[in-house]
Structure formats: C-alpha cells, structure tokens
Amino acid sequence: MWKKVLVGAAGIAATLRHPCHLIETRHSSTSISSAVNSMLLRSLKEHYLEIAKMTFPPKVDPPSPFTIVKGALDSNSPVLKRMYGDEEISIYVMRLANIVPGGGDDDDNNGIDQLFLHVDVSKPGQKDSLNFLCGLYEDAIGIHSVSMRTKFETSGYLVTPSQYNGPVFEDLDERMRDAFHNYIDERGVNESLFKFLQAWLYVKDHRHLMRWFKTVGVFVDGKKPAKDA
Ligand SMILES: *[C@@H]1O[C@H](CO)[C@@H](O)[C@H](O)[C@H]1NC(C)=O
C-alpha cells in the first residue's frame, strides 16, 4: 500500500518542477516576483500539509539481534548494528534509484523494490574493515563487491574512486562466491532485512520530503528558519 503512496509523493514533488508559472518572470519586476513567491509558498504549504497527512505503514521491528542506530534517520550513520562475537556488523541502506538515476528496474517501480546495502564488518584492533556492497530484494540478496576499507573512512554507500573496490564479484570462482554469501548470512545479513529496511526508508523519505517543502519555503519566504527545520 505505501509503495503507491511513495510514488505519489514523488509525483507531487515532480509537479513542482512544472515551469508554467515561470514565463511571467521573464519581464519581471519586484512586485511580480513577490507574486511568484507567494504562489510558490502557497503551493509548498499545500503539499507540505498533504504529505503531513499521509499514513505510515505499520511499524516493523528490525530482525533480532540487530538494533536500530539512534539518529540514523537524520544522518549518514548506519541504520542497524549488531555484535557477532567481537565483530561489529553495521548496515547502511539506500534505494538503488537514489544512487543511479533511473537505476534499478526499468518499469514504473523506479527501483523501489531493490535496495542497496552496505555491510561493514569490523574487528577490534584492526584498522581496516571488510565491506560488502549488496543488492537486497524482498526474497533475495546479491553481493556486488567485497573490499577492505579503512575504518571511519566508510561514509555509507560512497565508493571512493581511488580505492580498490575488489575484483568483479561475478568473476570470482563459484565456491568463493558461495562462501562469501555464507559469511554474511551467518552474520544475519539476508533477505529477512528487507521488510524492515524498506519501511525505514519510507519513513526517512517522508521526513526528507517534509523538510524539503519546509526549508525551501522558509528560504523563499526569507524568514528565519524555525528551530526544527
Ligand atoms: C536470515 O538470518 C536470520 C538470522 O540468522 C535467520 O533467523 C533467518 O531465518 C534468515 N532468513 C532467511 C530468509 O534465510
């Protein structure tokens, strides 16, 4: 149900790009521009209120023993963490469509059913961590790459171009690929994460969209931003 809502939200954002009102600004004066401003402000406010009324999907708990990282909705920190022995497993997530414009599947889903997962495995006393980039679907998980990263340099999903990102995973021997799959599976990284992460991203997208309407409005209006903006 909320898939549709999300697409709707993106659609609302897209209508704001329609340039029909901009023609008048060509031969503009201050008074026209303030009319344009108030039209934009009204539109932003309407959509803000509309989005604010959206209902959320039922709350999904993360698969145990993963726990949600506090503040992850508002930062680039990992979403989930767990310990595995003395290893720390951190999970970052993004929609594929947000990384590769038009990425994911090419039907009208816009890649909503495919998530991009970054799994970071770190050990005490080791300066590098083991990183997996994975595609996550409702019923499957696939590894794109395996690489070593300097701890704390891992900024979520960003792949540093200067760093070696590991061999092309598909080119590895099948037994090695299976062994890597078992390695992350043993650490609880599998398709069971999908439901939670999908719901979590929905909340995050909703929050970003609300904030976007608000901060753009505050900027155009020229007033001081509210504390929570
Ligand atoms: C995923 O991993 C968890 C924890 O190891 C396990 O309980 C669950 O059954 C796994 N799910 C699938 C679909 O393999």
TrEMBL record:
<dbReference type="InterPro" id="IPR003428">
    <property type="entry name" value="MAM33"/>
</dbReference>
<dbReference type="Pfam" id="PF02330">
    <property type="entry name" value="MAM33"/>
</dbReference>
<dbReference type="InterPro" id="IPR036561">
    <property type="entry name" value="MAM33_sf"/>
</dbReference>
<protein>
    <submittedName>
        <fullName>Mitochondrial glycoprotein</fullName>
    </submittedName>
</protein>
<dbReference type="GO" id="GO:0005759">
    <property type="term" value="C:mitochondrial matrix"/>
</dbReference>
